[in-house]
């Protein structure tokens, strides 16, 4: 049912995800507006198409991995988009792995389920959207160890599971449409707040005379232990192989973190839920971007927000 896979958005994440599909022996057809990256695939003999619609025409399932909601809407509902000629769609399944807000994802799902398939197949004879954002970053995308958090029809999720497992290590079904998107922005807001908490504590600790290395040992065997202290330490030199130890290059950019916090704040506002920590983290990351650190890894908050040093 899902033999022919279309993939749109061959950036930092999508590029590696497609390679993992290819390595798993899956037939793919790709599109990106960036012709350089398209060439990398056509040079390897991979099918490339000029528009999302052309990809859809030759696919049972199309996966999208795009920067933000406006790009996603453009690729699905824009001219020559995936849903162009919505009464004669070829793919029965669409999987959006971009990090976007749950509301847009739910609206898009309703639009897709109102389209008609060329041939009746898949779940219930109507086309289906799954929101399936990922965690694990560029390294996880390359290594094929991503975690997929998936919202939408459970039957479609089960059909797509082997595809997720060709690109990742874990898949978690989160419930109806938009729940994958909701899970992703909640994960990232918790990650932002814990990174700020750890950075603040290291900064205070250093000022009070205790080194970050000692404090890290204490945190990691005490109740403050978290991913930001034991796997992604923000203090240069404390851990090898993390962005903090290579001038905060690579990793997950402050710009993407600011984007995800904006999504979390907007979602909270829409339902009038107070999220003060999220708002504070949003202000800090927007500030870092304004100061020119938008392409540095988000753990650079330790250097730029707390120690105030500009190297
Ligand atoms: P990216 O900017 O590197 O890649 C996006 C790709 O989409 C680019 O190649 C771009 O040319 C292409 N694109 C944009 N508009 C297009 C259009 N209209 N038609 C066709 N192609 C188009 O972004 P990324 O880092 O790969 O992230 C993709 C998504 O994954 C984002 O939503 C991001 O928040 C999320 N994400 C990223 C990471 C990470 O560490 N980079 C981790 C988890 C989730």
Automatic annotation (TrEMBL):
Catalyses which reaction(s): 3-hydroxy-2-methylpropanoate + NAD(+) = 2-methyl-3-oxopropanoate + NADH + H(+)
One Pfam family here: NAD_binding_2
EC numbers: 1.1.1.31
A molecular function GO annotation: NADP binding
Subcellular location: Mitochondrion
The entry's keywords: Branched-chain amino acid catabolism, Mitochondrion, NAD, Oxidoreductase, Transit peptide
InterPro entries according to UniProt: 3-OH-isobutyrate_DH-rel_CS, 6-PGluconate_DH-like_C_sf, 6PGD_dom2, 6PGDH_NADP-bd, HIBADH, HIBADH-like_NADP-bd, NAD(P)-bd_dom_sf
GO cellular component terms, A-Z: mitochondrion
Residues in 3-hydroxyisobutyrate dehydrogenase-like NAD-binding domain copies: 178-303
GO BP terms, alphabetized: L-valine catabolic process
Pathway: Amino-acid degradation; L-valine degradation
Residues covered by the 6-phosphogluconate dehydrogenase NADP-binding domain: 4-175
Family of this protein: Belongs to the HIBADH-related family. 3-hydroxyisobutyrate dehydrogenase subfamily.
Protein name: 3-hydroxyisobutyrate dehydrogenase
Organism: Protea cynaroides
């Amino acid at each position: 049912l899902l033999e022919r896979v279309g993939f749109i958005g061959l950036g930092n994440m999508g590029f590696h995800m497609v390679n993992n599909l290819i390595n798993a022996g899956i037939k793919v057809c790709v599109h990106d507006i960036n012709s350089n990256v398209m060439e990398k695939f056509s040079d390897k003999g991979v099918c490339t198409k000029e528009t999302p619609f052309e990809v859809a025409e030759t696919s049972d399932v199309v996966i999208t991995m795009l920067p933000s909601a406006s790009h996603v809407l453009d690729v699905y509902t824009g001219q020559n988009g995936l849903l162009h000629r919505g009464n004669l769609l070829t793919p029965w399944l669409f999987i959006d792995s971009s990090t976007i807000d749950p509301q847009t994802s739910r609206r898009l799902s309703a639009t897709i389920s109102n389209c008609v398939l060329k041939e009746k197949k898949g779940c219930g004879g109507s086309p289906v959207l799954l929101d399936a954002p990922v965690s694990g970053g560029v390294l996880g995308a390359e290594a094929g160890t991503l975690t997929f958090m998936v919202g939408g029809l459970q039957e479609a999720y089960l059909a797509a599971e082997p595809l997720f497992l060709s690109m990742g290590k874990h898949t978690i079904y989160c419930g109806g449409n938009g729940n994958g998107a909701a899970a992703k922005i909640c994960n990232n807001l918790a990650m932002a707040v814990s990174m700020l908490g750890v950075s603040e504590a290291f900064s205070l600790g250093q000022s009070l005379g205790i080194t970050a290395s000692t404090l890290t040992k204490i945190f990691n065997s005490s109740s403050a232990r978290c991913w930001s202290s034991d796997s992604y330490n923000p203090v240069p030199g404390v851990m090898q192989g993390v962005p903090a130890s290579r001038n905060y290059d690579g990793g997950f950019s402050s710009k993407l973190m600011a984007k995800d916090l904006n999504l979390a704040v907007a979602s909270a506002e829409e339902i009038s839920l107070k999220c003060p920590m999220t708002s504070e983290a949003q202000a800090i990351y927007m500030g870092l971007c304004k100061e020119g650190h938008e392409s540095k890894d988000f753990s650079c908050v330790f250097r730029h927000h707390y120690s105030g040093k500009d190297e």
